[in-house]
Amino acid sequence: MQKVGAPGGQGQARSRRGALGRSGVVLLTYVLAALELTCLFLQFSSMPYLSRRLGLDSVAFGYQQTMFGVLQLLGGPVFGRFADQHGARAAFTLSFLASSTLYLLLAAACIPALPGVALLFASRLPGALMHTLPAAQMVIADLSTPEERPAALGRLGLCFGVGLIFGPLLSGTLSSSCGIQCPLIVALVVTLLGALLSVTCIPASTKEAGAHAETTPPGKPKASVFDLKAITRLLLQPGVLPMFLVKVICGFPIGLFMVMFSIISMDFFQLEAAQAGYLMSFFGILQMVIQGLVIGRLSSHFSERALLRASVLVFSVAGLAMALMTNVFHFCLLMPGLVFSLCALNVVTDSILTKAVSASDTGAMLGLCASVQPLTRTLGPTLGGLLYRSFGVPIFGHVQFAVNLVVLLVLWRQPVSRKMDKAQ
Fold it and tell me: What is the 3-state secondary structure (H, E, C) of 39-67?
């Protein structure tokens, strides 16, 4: 019986790696993430111009942005459960097909004979299933050892930087030369290509053979992807909720600032559209270098707990400096510290949280982590606008300084979880 089982185990291991092998699957995962993020930032850059062309004012534009954020917030945990139950191939394919549907609706909204405004709002609906980055994080977490995981997840910052740089660049270039519909059609073709690569090259599952047995115990029916109890159960595991709260609370102040950045760059920094674009490209390059290269090197020399404390400390100091800045040059000096803190916080918390849950739940856990940014995009426009109108730009620095200082004191005096220390 053992001789019969051994080849089966080897076959299961091969199915986890796919025909490309482990390194090939990981490399393709990075490529797919870069393609999706490029198209996503292309869409973000095209949406204001498409909305203006369709006659929408800033309030209506805010409504559809909030709608997109709410749908992604609600869809993240459900998508994570789907990825855990149905595997990496199904998760990538579903995400890319949802993205293709979104870009198809946006391209159709550019046709004068069609109801453009209705199609524009309808295009927000597939956003609930557009979660290629959490799918990529799940694959990286499944195929990397606990020691390799922070560096492997950090390399996804290179993909984010590629999207942040080339997405707006492609949007502006193609819109100027071929019209607003052209970049959306390009994004449609690219996401369809991503779906094809997912179906043909990504293995059906990247989890260990025993992980699926953990998901569905013998004698019990398979839980639904919409099972809220199964999702909240993750947060109630030892040490998970405190670390998740650290991720949400520390990142929320800078998230508010970034949501309001387009207005701040015009009113406070007095930048033109092209200058604001250069500043965002600088942000993207910093993120590529710091998250893709620096975080990985630091994780091999320092513990995750030390990196987490360092990120919160730098966040707090940078917040105090933000409260005192008066021009864009001051902000450029602060950007390396802000980007380091943001990258370290996201990479380290994602790594710790995926280690704190079983292998069968990494997708759901990363889906919960992915809901943090949509939460900021949902609450940010209203709360950030109120703070900016009432107190000006320094209030964002004051809030960031105070919040992160409190979290730093808590982290320093009270360990978050013994279980996470053992995992490290």
Answer: HHHHHHHHHHHHHHHCCCCHHHHHHHHHH
- pTM of the predicted structure, to 2 decimals: 0.74
Tens of pLDDT, residue by residue, the chain (424 residues): 444 444 444 454 455 555 567 788 889 999 999 999 999 988 888 887 888 888 887 677 777 877 888 888 888 888 888 888 888 899 999 999 999 999 999 999 999 888 989 999 999 999 989 988 888 988 888 888 877 887 788 788 788 888 888 888 888 888 888 888 899 999 999 999 999 999 998 888 877 644 444 444 544 455 555 556 767 777 778 888 888 899 999 999 998 888 788 778 878 888 776 677 678 778 888 888 888 788 878 888 888 889 999 999 999 999 999 999 999 899 999 999 999 999 899 888 888 888 887 777 777 788 788 788 878 877 777 788 888 888 988 999 999 999 999 999 998 876 544 444 444 4
Per the structure block, which two tokens stand in for 94? 């579903």
Helices (H), 155-272: 156-178, 181-201, 209-215, 228-235, 240-259, 261-267
Distances (CA, A) of 73 to 79, 119, 155, 259, 397: 10, 21, 24, 16, 26
Among 33, 150, 128, CA closest to 82: 128
Which tokens go with 404?
């992160």
Taking the C-alpha atoms of residue 337 and residue 369, their distance in angstroms, rounded to an integer, is 22
| Interior/surface letters 90-129, b for 16+ CB within 10 angstroms, e for the rest | bbbbbbbbbbbbbbbbbbbbbeeeeebeebbbbbbebbbb
The number of angstroms, rounded, from the C-alpha of 202 to the middle of its chain's C-alpha atoms is 20
From CA 135, how far away is CA 93, in angstroms rounded? 10
Cβ atoms of 138 and 366 closer than 8 Å = yes
Q: How many CA atoms lie within 13 A of 349 on its CB side?
A: 29
First and final CA of the chain: distance in angstroms? 36
Compute the C-alpha angle 352/312/142, nearest 5°: 20
Could you tell me if 384 and 226 are in contact, meaning their C-beta atoms sit under 8 angstroms apart?
A: no
* Structure tokens given for 63: 């409504």
